[in-house]
Fold this sequence. Notes:
Elements: E1 8-9, E2 15-16, E3 23-30, E4 36-42, E5 57-60, E6 63-65, E7 71-74, E8 82-92, E9 97-103, E10 118-120, E11 122-123, E12 128-129, H1 132-144, E13 157-162, E14 173-175, H2 181-189, E15 197-202, E16 212-217, E17 229-232, E18 240-246, E19 257-261, E20 271-275, H3 284-287, E21 291-295, H4 304-317, E22 323-328, E23 346-353, E24 356-372, E25 378-385
Parallel strand pairs: 13-16, 17-23, 19-21
Antiparallel strand pairs: 1-2, 3-4, 3-24, 4-9, 5-8, 6-7, 8-9, 10-14, 11-12, 15-16, 18-22, 19-20, 22-25, 23-24, 24-25
Amino acid sequence: MAGGAINAAGYDGAVSNEIRHAEDRNVHLVLDNYEDLNFTLYLDDPMAPFVKPLTSVIKLWRSIYSDEGTLVYQDPADTPCFSGFVAFTGKRGANNQMGVRAFSPLWRLKTRFHVNNHYLATNLDTNAPYTESELIWKFIDLLQNAFPVNNRSYMGMEKGNFQWANDPVMGPYFQAKGANGWSNIFDTILSRAESPELIPRYHHSGGSPIQMYLDTDQARGANKTGSVSFNFHTGTNDNLDDLTEDIEIQPNDFANYVWAVGQGGPNSGKLALALNVNDDEFGYDTVKVYQQYAEFNDIQLYNDTLRDLALGELKKNRRPQPSYGVAISPAITGPFYGMHYVCGDAISLNANKGALQVTNAAVRIFECTLSMSHNNVETSNPLIGPDVKEHIIPS
């Protein structure tokens, strides 16, 4: 994946490594998951034959211009908005088109498992027990170096900056032979109520195989509730074309009675209880009992860690959480993704339309899909909701 840029002549004869005539362009940016880029090429596009699964890397840079044509925002040359390898091409003869989908390097973790057992206790770089961020990177490092000849197992990721001073300790940890790389990180570590968040920092440097640096912090993004506001139908500074609100009660997503169970199951004695003692509108005296059973097989003792995990799960799930879908109007002067907000940021939300009432709600941006029209008008559709981990927005 360290090859140089692919150059091809465009329809106008100019030779470059840019895909200049893509249609149906959109990039999906998401918190603590892999991100993806989608577009369509015509089959006779000179670049189309060169875009191939697993061997092609696609990078995206964004620029924003004012109505007067002045450049107001541009991704740095060495930090694209997205970098990923092609994992899907779909050619449709009658339509004369080829659909392309590229995934960020994190997606590759789904295709890797550990070929050896590892007992991970003390990080030799720090002489202290592994924190969660350090353990995440150790998993990736082991997978990237499992087949070192010709970098056969390299996934395009490098260690970035771990910025959370109170990164939770997770060592000692036993990582079993055959364990899936994605499951270790996303289903085990990042599923905890108290865990760092991943911050992909995409990279470009000539023919370098590095696609991404992986940073972590207590939270991705920043608190911008005082400076960025999404407004729908309020009559003042409205910048949304649409707003949707969904509240759905799902098992384990709402609970007022929580068991955190350590290694050995509930009969082992390693069990911590947390319940909604506030007895508010979602307490079990009001809405009856909704239970959550959360297993933490790496916890070998009944200790403060297990109690903290139980309290963290209750804090996260003790209220049914609304999710909001947003369509930001493209016919205004912002807010623009990258310039005013990014995935993970906390912003203020307002709405005033009948039963859809929201007043200065502090919410986080968990996903954002950026779509570019044929005439280069970008629309932004964030998915937002409460900051259940309270990492950016304190209780």
